[in-house]
Amino acid sequence: MQQLLTGQTRLPGFSGEWEVRYLGDLCKLKSGESITAARIDGHSAYLCYGGNGLRGYTSTFTHDGKYALIGRQDALCGNVVGVEGRFFASEHALVVTANTDIAIEWLTYVLSRMNLNQYSESSAQPGLSASKLVMLRIDAPSTAAEQTAVAALLSDLDAELAALEARLSKTRALKQAMMQELLTGRIRLL
User: Fold this and answer.
1) CB-CB contact of 58 with 40 (8 Å)
2) Is 162 domain-assigned?
3) pTM for the full model?
4) Would you state the pLDDT for residue 120?
5) Does residue 22 fall inside a structural domain?
6) Domain span at residue 114?
7) Is residue 48 part of a domain?
8) DSSP conformational letter for 120
9) So what's the pLDDT on residue 24?
C-alpha cells in the first residue's frame, strides 16, 4: 500500500513523474466551528465530528460534499477519516478541502498513512496546527485520474480485507463453539 501511495509502484496505464508538493498546495486546512454539548444529541439529522471522530448528531451542518477530517486535539490527535454528505465539523477537527485537481479519496489515504500525530504540539493536551501541516511534503501523482485509480484500488483492497476479517471472526467463533461441544463430551468423534 505504501508503495502505491508514494509512486514506487505504478498502476498500468499511467506514466510521468510524481511531484513532491506541499500539502498546502494540494488542499486547504481549516478548523471546524464551535458547538456546545447541548447542541449534540443522538437523533438529529446531521453527523457531528470532533477531534476523536463521531461525537453524535446535530440539527445544523457546516459542510456538504466529500472531505477528509483530521483530529486536531485530544487523544486521537492526527487520526484521519473520510466523510461525505452534510455534516458538522467541530473546532477540534481540521477539515481538508481538496483542490479541484486533487482526488480527496487519494488524499485521505495519504494523510491516514502519514502518522500525523507526530507533528502535534507538546503540551498538556496534544494538538495539531494547520500552519505546520500545510508545510509537509507529499509525493503526488500529476493527474487526478491516477490519484483516483490508486484510491479505488486501495478501497477495493480494504473491502476485501474487511470481508476476510469477518470470515476469520466467524471461523474463530465456530471453532470456539465446536471446542465447547467436543471438550464437554456433548459431541463425540468416531
Assistant:
1) yes
2) no
3) 0.81
4) 87
5) yes
6) 2-150
7) yes
8) P
9) 97
**C-alpha cell read off for 79:** 487520526
- The string of pLDDT tens digits covering residues 149-161 is 988 888 888 889 9
- Helices 104-112 and 144-183 pack at an angle, to 10 degrees, of 50
What pLDDT does 111 receive?
A: 96
For the domain that residue 31 is a member of, what is the CATH number?
A: 3.90.220.20
> What's the length of the chain?
190
134: left (phi over 0), alpha (psi -120 to 50) or beta: alpha
Note whether residue 161 is domain-resident.
no
The tens digit of pLDDT for each residue in 13-60 reads 888 888 999 999 999 999 999 999 999 999 999 999 998 889 999 999
- In the block, which residue shows the cell 498513512? 113
Q: Do the strands 80-89 and 46-50 form a parallel or antiparallel pair, or are they unpaired?
A: parallel
Q: Structural domain tally of the chain?
A: 1
Q: Which residue has the higher pLDDT, 1 or 55?
A: 55
CB burial string 89-109: b at 16+ within 10 A, e below: bbebbbbbbbeeebbbbbbbb
What contacts 61, CB < 8 A, 6 or more positions away? 45, 46, 86, 87, 88
